């Protein structure tokens, strides 16, 4: 079986600013990877490179065994960007319509079938927002909107979910429920890559950790991360670490 994502020797700069320095890591299918590092450490940049949204200056990326620039099965990937939580989202469609869009990749130019609609309803049910189906996406709270985007990814039968700080601005209770949802999606076989600033959440939830600060400081199972010095090394003496347990 091929890996979900394979990053090899990736270096990337924004102009003069080196954002990633010779980073290599492999995300296996079924992994729940927590991607952590201080502010400005290159997490979002690495995620964008993994998904083929930006091209590295050096190095290579494979998605499901294919060079990322040749990868054409976008429906296999669900990406929830940081902006997805912010208010004033531009989607004037209902939640149900948004989630049905997840089926378009499968039907091409033909119309959605009853089965496509049923898959979309099931996705709404899975993430617990069936009752919001007729609301407009831009009228949802941040947490509800995250769920709508995840439901869309499920409807498209994504097997990799990439989430960039999905619970910023989401209240604690909804956040816990959201992470329980991620756990159950991961248990059902979906690969998850999660950027999250709360180290406690990441070490509770993820089975593997990649800790970066331009360079990769650690990549391995969560236990070995907790026992290592990677956290203090990557965050440095001046770094502020959000660290609490539930
Ligand atoms: P993180 O997600 O860990 O906060 P980013 O990947 O967003 O970090 O950013 C890494 C570094 O690259 C930071 O120093 C940031 O200021 C810089 N950076 C990010 N995006 C851009 C951009 N579009 N242009 C110039 N510099 C950028």
UniProtKB/TrEMBL annotation:
The ABC transporter domain is annotated at 5-239
CDD domains according to UniProt: ABC_Metallic_Cations
SMART domains per UniProt: AAA (SM00382)
Q: Which GO terms describe its molecular function?
A: ABC-type vitamin B12 transporter activity; ATP binding; ATP hydrolysis activity
Top enzyme class, one word, equals translocase
Q: Do you know which InterPro entries this protein is assigned to?
A: AAA+_ATPase (IPR003593), ABC_transporter-like_ATP-bd (IPR003439), Metal_Ion_Import_ABC (IPR050153), P-loop_NTPase (IPR027417)
Keywords assigned by UniProt?
Answer: ATP-binding, Nucleotide-binding, Transport
Domain of life, per lineage: Archaea
Q: What is its EC number?
A: 7.6.2.8
Can the keyword Nucleotide-binding be found in this entry's annotation? yes
Q: Which reaction does it catalyse?
A: an R-cob(III)alamin(out) + ATP + H2O = an R-cob(III)alamin(in) + ADP + phosphate + H(+)
Q: Does the keyword Transmembrane helix apply?
A: no
What's the stated role of this polypeptide? Required for corrinoid utilization. Probably part of the ABC transporter complex BtuCDF involved in cobalamin (vitamin B12) import. Probably responsible for energy coupling to the transport system.
How does this chain assemble?
Answer: The complex is composed of two ATP-binding proteins (BtuD), two transmembrane proteins (BtuC) and a solute-binding protein (BtuF).
**Family per record:** Belongs to the ABC transporter superfamily.
Name the chain's protein.
Cobalamin import ATP-binding protein BtuD
Task: Please give the organism.
Answer: Natrarchaeobius chitinivorans
At the highest ranks, the source species' classification is: Archaea, Methanobacteriati, Methanobacteriota, Stenosarchaea group, Halobacteria
